[in-house]
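Q: Protein A?
A:
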Amino acid sequence: MKIAVDENGYYGEFGGAFIPELLHPNIEELKDNYLKISQEEGFQKEFKALLKDYVGRPTPLYYAKKLSEQFGAKIYLKREDLNHTGAHKINNAIGQALLAQRLGKHKIIAETGAGQHGVATATACALLGMECTVFMGEKDIDRQRPNVERMKILGAKVVPATSGSKTLKDATNEAMRYWINHPDDTHYIIGSVVGPHPFPDMVARFQSVISEEIKYQLKEVEGTDSPDYVIACVGGGSNAAGSFYHYLDDESVKLVNVEASGLGLDSGKTAATTDKGSSGILHGFKTLLMQDGDGQVTEPYSISAGLDYPGIGPLHAHLFASKRAIFRYVTDQEAMDAGVNLSKQEGIIPAIETAHAFAALDQMDFKQDDIVVMNLSGRGDKDLQTYIDFGNY
């Protein structure tokens, strides 16, 4: 099974570019140049130097002894939470900002839910001297206040999205609208493997540094570069795409995507796209999304601001449809319990998004010698108030 994007931006039946005519020049410019520019020796040298000296890569692959004993497998944590800004998002933000510079764009816009992509983009823009505007749902601004202030300190303008559910979907809508009206000098740094082609492929490539490192780090400690399982949470799915990337065609490695089921799959308050979704078009690409009988997008729900997206990246929709990946669904309660468990077992407080991946360990049936890599995609500083309010520790 060869899993890769085709020339039209499709993974199987999902992907493509369904965009207004006004955006065609921008998308075509990106499509024509992103591979050529990002593979240039000068680009790679600058990108890798920043990942090493500024972001702090490579991130450790940590053997979680207590967690391994608890779940009966060899569990390793890929510590993306130790990146500068506290999550995997900075890998893509710096990559796209460097690309934008080479395309002559000096203004950057972004959307954000949990705030980690917004912070990463604001950080990259401060570093490279670019103007930054971040669109964020009004609801997410309230529940992710520390990240909002971080963006402002870094010099970014934060614009609230006040329509719809006032969350990530609506922030993305506002960012798309802005880009349509400012096509010449502005680049839109999409934070996940979503949006019109080439964004899903471009973001996955910038995040593929995660699985690239896992391969050689695992080889050093286990004598093999292929684990039995790679597990990651997925909203749009950039951290999952990055940790799966170099294993997509290695069917000996089981890929596990963990979605947020909110208050339960049948509660009407969920973000479990692959369980509740159907094929449709959202934000410029074809995917599985949550919609009613008339094709109107239905509002997702999750306690985590980064997972309540009504769709899923086209790569992940294809992994689901082709049965290449295993999908698991985790409730708010299960995620919060898992976050507290990781904190007490290993001394690591995870982002609530990340905690969903750890909650799926309860649903797995491991053998004693199974090697399991968990992508610990973000740290929980931003979520302390939610942990406090939930009060389950």
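Q: Protein B?
A:
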Amino acid sequence: MNAQELIIGHLLPIAATVAILWLVYRLLFRNSNRLYFNRFFLLTSMLLALAMPLLGLLSGIEVPQMATLKQQLFNGIMLNEVIVTPDGQPMLPEVTVTTNTTPSRFSLWQVIGGLYLIGVGVMTVLFLFKLGRLVVLIIRSPKRKMDGFTAVYLSAVPEPVEGPTPSQQGSFSFFRYAFFPNENVDPDIMRHEMSHIAHHHSWDILFAEVMMILQWFNPFIYLYKKELQSFHEYQADRDVVATGVDKKNYMMLILQQCTAVDFSGMSNKE
């Protein structure tokens, strides 16, 4: 597969689907309080976008006429008029191929493809860096097995770990690990993180991160991740409030957590 086929046949259909479905969500569903449906819609939208190139092939879009049209548009092929001879028999049209006589080391599509791969590489490195920081915290921090998850306490993390100091950290979770600044954890904060873990919110963030790597040039994909993170917080807050806690005290507790530094874009931060 060359750069032109990658961009036209795969990247652009995915990007267009992501944008169109985001606009549909924005117009029809964003103000809805159906958190489960909204979460399902956004996740399904990203999956459908990934499947668009395959759906195009299966539906027969790549028929010979379409292939000819692509050649005309991108390879400079132009058909002449059909000539009819005196005896009424049409002559086959001549095909004129225009070529660029100016020597060039790289074509425009190759340059665009190269820039895309550079962006993928940069986003992949950032993804691995964020993942590595979480792994380092898990390894170097004291931990305690709880019912259904592992609590990680950040107060004993040595200073060489880059980023905010433990005193600046809020509570957050990543898969079955819940991170807390110290062992004096408010029960409501613990319930909040347990809700993130129970609803498997980290899988959503991981999927969004992969989409951001593949579609780093698409501004709509970043909106998907931000919206999913908002749903996660609303869902966790709803679960905690459903236990009968005082809503005013809980709101103040959440505001205190919001002033903490966001450690990682891959975690479900309080």
